[in-house]
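Memo to structure team: turn this sequence into structure tokens by end of day. - J.P.
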Amino acid sequence: MSLQNPLVSVVMPVYNADEYLAEAIDSILAQTFRDFEFIIICDDASDKTHKIIDNYQKTDDRIKVFYQKREGLVASLNKGCSVAKGKYIARMDADDISLLQRFEKQISFLERHQNIGIIGTWVNNISDDGSLLKQINKLPTSPNVLRYFLHFFSPLAHPSIMMRRRIFEKFGPYNVDALHAEDYELWSRIASDTDFSNIPEVLLKYRVHKKSISGEFKNTQNDQAYKTKFFLINKLLNGSVDAKDIMMLHDWQKLKKISALYQVDVIDSLIHRIFCRVLEKNNLNTEELLEIKYYHLMFLFELAISTKNISLIATIKIIYKMMNENFRISIKIYFQFLKKILLKF
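Reply from structure team:
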């Protein structure tokens, strides 16, 4: 292990997270892989934050702390990544918990898959007290499927990712204008150059609470996510899409509600165009094709559910389209799909 040339640089911004900070730090220091520097960027640190971090720094020289006046999350991320020395940069948030083998498994994956620039993991959402909130968030693992998903939302859990530092140096920094959706915006720029993947295993517990970014800044986050979604879809469809149509798709994804019948055709058409263009543009293997078809069916099904209180005819029309022979897929995929349907109805 070399502190001068660590294999991994862990970057953790800290702001107003005193309640969970010790647990987050403990989860990093307890990692089975130990060759890392732990960069902590403290934004407007309280006296309690100083005390917690200073106590840890006295006992572990891998911890490097940078105190600054209030500059915000994006500036903290950029600061941490800019001083990182590791071959890989691992993200961490001050209110989350990394499982013991997270770094070990991510490094092993990146060493074996040189085409992958960023590797995330599955996550479990937890509450303030650490109790589980829902089932495992099973994000896709295939690079081509993630590239498809990118047109609808970020397919990586940001605090779970590990990336090659050279990727950040080429495409960074995080965009300050994409506040609270800075990860999604960065992925949109990186996607043309490198592949993403997720380890199909829970290696991070993601804490959801009122002070979290997703809780406190939900509206700002949604607005910034729309801008990135517009960029990606407009690029995929060669500028042939109306911004209002993308906004309609974005609002529907956010609310899962349809207020007028004309929206159904607009959203349906846009989803279909994205699907067809992705199939045309990417050289998909059989498994990737089946998986993307499955998710396409799920988007259409969610759209059908959204219309059932407005027009039963529109609902039936979408379901009929879903069962068109162009979307006939394996029995395994249909069973997965039917299971989702039964749970919804």
